[in-house]
Design goal:
Length: about 325
């Protein structure tokens, strides 16, 4: 049995992970520390708030004394750090906030892991730290880190800190670098849920640039099982790429969404490109597949249908997150594009 501090467990991937652990490995304790920013939502965890092995704490990962207090109080042995500012477009308008949570916050967690001699620290990173690919090749764990956006630069900085704490103080860590996740509970600022929400409301679908940017889509449950395997099996000090083997151009994804929802292609609107937009990401996941016996089991064709249907069936969840602040965000991000 593990006693785990999960940070960011009210966000998209974190809440799917908490749900998976409490459903499939319910003898593990999860203390869930989340600041509940715009991206954190306790409705994601509605069925699990009273679970005896789930304690939710509203708080900031930058608050070192709070983190140390939680470790002592619950005798925690592991940190899995999902908490982050996670959206590239927001990092272009507000980079400082990204330094604060993604770098300073990770530092506070590492100091706690070191001082309390935790068994393991798992940093949830991203393939975006590797930068952008041309039409050929894939990222391996040996690919040099070369981030292009403020978001990926902060995630890369955090990864370097994690490795430095391993080397300098012997913190037992793993870093996972996954490709783009999709699935239930994703905030509709990211491509797939934003396009689903707009299409459902017959609003224009804003496609950046030529729409031929490529991402390697990973169904969120497959990501969660990969992180679990890392926790169970990985030797300390190892980095693992996690990918879905589902490379798609953005327009292909958008067309699948329109087809499933029976909406016209005329909703597509080409808009100004994202500055510094990475052309293509693709993951070589052979290391985790061979060494930890993990593999993605959800194909893109299956996962995208499950995802679209989830949003259609959970309209109250969607209505709740797109009310209020979201309207202001959408207006400021897309009005003059
Ligand atoms: P998200 O934005 O949906 O959720 C982030 C969560 O962190 C929210 O619940 C938020 O309230 C919380 N949070 C933010 N700042 C905090 C702070 N200072 N203290 C405590 N909690 C804080 O993000 P996500 O998509 O679930 O991503 C989770 C992790 O996975 C991130 O580290 C991200 O970089 C990484 N990642 C995501 C993707 C993806 O496709 N979504 C891909 C690769 C890597
Ligand atoms: P996003 O979901 O923001 O993930 P990331 O940039 O971290 O990979 O974007 C995925 C792709 O979709 C990326 O190429 C940018 C593009 N995109 C659009 O074309 N329109 C949009 O409104 C958004 C949010 C993204």
């Amino acid at each position: 049995m593990r006693k785990i501090l999960v940070t960011g467990g009210a966000g998209f991937i974190g809440s799917n992970f908490v749900q998976m652990v409490l459903s499939e490995h319910p003898d593990n304790l999860i203390v869930n520390l989340d600041k509940l920013t715009y991206a954190g939502n306790l409705k994601n965890l509605a069925e699990f708030m009273e679970h005896p092995n789930h304690k939710f704490i509203k708080g900031d990962i930058c608050d070192g004394p709070l983190v140390e207090k939680l470790i002592d109080e619950y005798q925690l042995d592991t940190i899995i750090n999902f908490a982050a500012e996670s959206h590239v477009d927001r990092s272009i308008t507000e980079p400082k906030l990204f330094i604060e949570t993604n770098v300073t916050g990770t530092l506070a967690l590492l100091e706690a892991a070191r001082d309390k001699n935790l068994e393991r620290f798992i940093q949830i990173s991203t393939d975006e730290v590797y930068g952008s690919l041309g039409s050929e090749g894939k990222f391996t764990e040996q690919t040099p880190v070369s981030p292009n956006s403020p978001y990926s630069a902060c995630k890369a900085g955090a990864d370097h800190l994690v490795q430095a704490f391993g080397r300098t103080w012997g913190v037992r860590y793993n870093i996972t670098r996954c490709s783009n996740n999709y699935g239930p509970y994703q905030f509709p600022e990211k491509l797939i849920p934003l396009m689903i929400n707009n299409a459902l409301n017959d609003k224009e679908l804003p496609v950046y640039g030529d729409g031929l940017y490529v991402r390697d889509w990973l169904y969120v449950n497959d990501h969660c099982t990969a992180v679990w395997q890392v926790l169970q099996k990985a030797p300390p000090g190892e980095i693992y790429n996690i990918g879905g083997c589902n490379e798609k151009a953005n327009l292909e994804v958008i067309n699948q969404i329109l087809d499933r929802l029976g909406k016209p292609k005329s909703l597509i609107k080409y808009v100004a490109d994202r500055p510094g937009h990475d052309r293509r990401y693709a993951i070589d996941a052979r290391k985790i597949i061979t060494e930890l016996e993990w593999r993605p089991v959800v194909s893109f064709e299956e996962g995208i249908i499950k995802t679209i249907d989830w949003y259609v069936q959970n309209q109250p969840w969607l209505d709740n997150v797109v009310s209020g602040e979201y309207q202001k965000y959408y207006e400021s991000m897309y009005k003059d594009r």
